[in-house]
Each structure stands twice: as structure tokens, then as C-alpha cells.
Write a structure and sequence with these properties.
- With 108 residues, the chain is mostly helical.
- 71% of the residues lie in helices and 0% in strands.
- Helix 1 runs parallel beside helix 3 and helix 2 runs antiparallel to helix 3.
- The N and C termini lie far apart (65 Å).
- The mean pLDDT is 84.
């Protein structure tokens, strides 16, 4: 196996490109999860937002990679990879926020 040297700039460029690819799916997912958490009276919204952003990045990357590794053209794989994340965000925001797992209701 030949030895290949990769510069730090190449690695940072690739990580930056991956981060740019996942933004359109991760940001709406983060907004939906953080908004729902705050509406339900949750604490530490910044921590929830960071966790939701990381989870949104991973989910978006998986969805985009699933289409990109198949026979789809690159533009279609990006669009079809973002659609599940947008649907997750819509479904999370449509859920009734006043219902709690214990059956109690938040004050309005």
C-alpha cells in the first residue's frame, strides 16, 4: 500500500465542506428541538441546542450520504437528503407542546 501524505489544510478544507453540506438540514432540526424543549419548560436550552445541532449534523450527513452513494446525481442527492430533516423539524414543531409524559399540562 503506497504512503500518502495529506496536509492539515486539506483535512480542514474537507471538514469545512462537510460542515457546509449539513447546514440546511441541521439548522431547522436544531431550531425545532430547542423550541420544543423550551415550550415544554425545559432547562439549559443552550445545551439542548448544541446536542440537537450535533444530532442534526449526523442525521443530515447520513441522509445525504445514503442518496449520494446511490445512482442519484449530486444535486438531487442533496435535495433528497435534506427533505427528511425538514420533515422531522415540521413534525417536531407540530407536536402539541403542552402535553407532558406524566399527563400534566403546562400553564399557559
Amino acid at each position: 500500500m503506497p504512503h500518502v501524505e495529506v496536509s492539515a489544510g486539506t483535512v480542514l478544507t474537507m471538514l469545512g465542506m462537510i460542515l457546509l453540506v449539513v447546514q440546511p438540514g441541521a439548522i431547522p432540526f436544531t431550531y425545532a428541538v430547542a423550541t420544543r424543549h423550551v415550550r415544554r419548560g425545559g432547562t439549559r436550552p443552550a445545551l439542548v441546542a448544541v446536542g440537537a445541532y450535533l444530532l442534526g449534523c449526523v442525521f443530515t450527513l447520513v441522509c445525504v450520504a445514503a442518496f449520494f452513494c446511490s445512482e442519484f446525481p449530486m444535486l438531487w442527492s442533496l435535495v433528497l437528503g435534506y427533505v427528511p430533516m425538514w420533515l422531522f423539524a415540521v413534525l417536531i414543531l407540530r407536536h402539541q407542546p403542552e402535553a407532558q409524559p406524566r399527563g400534566l399540562h403546562l400553564r399557559k
